[in-house]
Amino acid sequence: MTRWLVTGADGMLGTDLVAALTARGELVTGMDRAGLDVTDAAAVTEAMARCEPDVVVNCAAWTAVDDAETSEEQALAVNADGAANLAASCAKLGARLVQVSTDYVFAGDAGRPYAENDVPAPRTAYGRTKLAGERAVLDRLPGSGYVVRTAWLYGAHGPNFVRTMIKLEDQRPTVDVVDDQHGQPTWTMDVGRQIIALIHSTAAPGIYHATSSGQTTWFGLAREIFGLLGADPGRVRPIPSSALSRPAPRPAYSVLGHDAWAGTREPRVPPIGEWRTALHCALGELIAAQRPDSRPAG
Ligand SMILES: NC(=O)c1ccc[n+]([C@@H]2O[C@H](COP(=O)([O-])OP(=O)(O)OC[C@H]3O[C@@H](n4cnc5c(N)ncnc54)[C@H](OP(=O)(O)O)[C@@H]3O)[C@@H](O)[C@H]2O)c1
Prior knowledge:
By secondary structure, the chain is an alpha/beta fold. About 40% of the residues lie in helices and about 15% in strands. It starts with a strand and ends in an 8-residue tail after the last helix.
């Protein structure tokens, strides 16, 4: 049986990945930041020797996109040095490593979905540090390193856009949401299951895109959420990104292509399905997390 080690196990994705592994009866050790700080090379070596994992999934990350603009070195320590520490240990022990990464490695100005092998051109400090993490893994583990890029994540176990909309629908008559950024809203549980399927297939190491199929804007997503909550989607009003000023620029186009999944075999792993379908499945859990005292909308 495969032994898994998940770092950043208390985060939004890490929590759902550990849950998905546990539900499948896999042998999994989840370590939060207090249990394993990935920037501590000696602690990584010690934890790896103790757990002897076959597969490590690195969900630990500096994810504060705006703060990274003024703290790039600290972000780099987690997102790049942390990944390098894990990769070095995996190389010694013969373990496979899945490094979770992001659409922010791209410039975000394309007119068609980004392919796995498109040239990265990050425009933010966060994107640069995540790209350095990808390279740390792929360089050290050419035969056993996987980079799984995702984007626009939501889940029950962390702050995210879907939970914010569930809260605001309850509190405000209208909400203004940007309508000029395009992406693929993606459920953390889908990413967790996709990583598990990837490792259980005979997929070649390399880069995979784990985002939902289809695309929308934040405005389109907010309208869908309001509709599912039984509220009037007309209460969501479109605004341009220029109306919000943020330290890190947000990509206008974050749509990722899914061609690499076609190369998976035994069994073939299809890409994650349509974003709307996933949102319908996930919403009850997110409402319960956001409004613990209320019943989910029918
Ligand atoms: N959220 C998104 O929309 C999104 C989009 C694209 C890609 N991703 C990627 O998906 C992955 C998971 O993101 P997420 O949304 O689950 O983020 P998250 O909720 O912020 O989880 C990250 C976890 O990493 C932990 N961590 C931070 N520094 C650490 C360290 N030095 N050692 C060990 N653990 C550390 C954090 O602990 P503390 O809370 O204690 O700091 C947190 O539990 C990341 O690689 C991220 O870049 C996320």
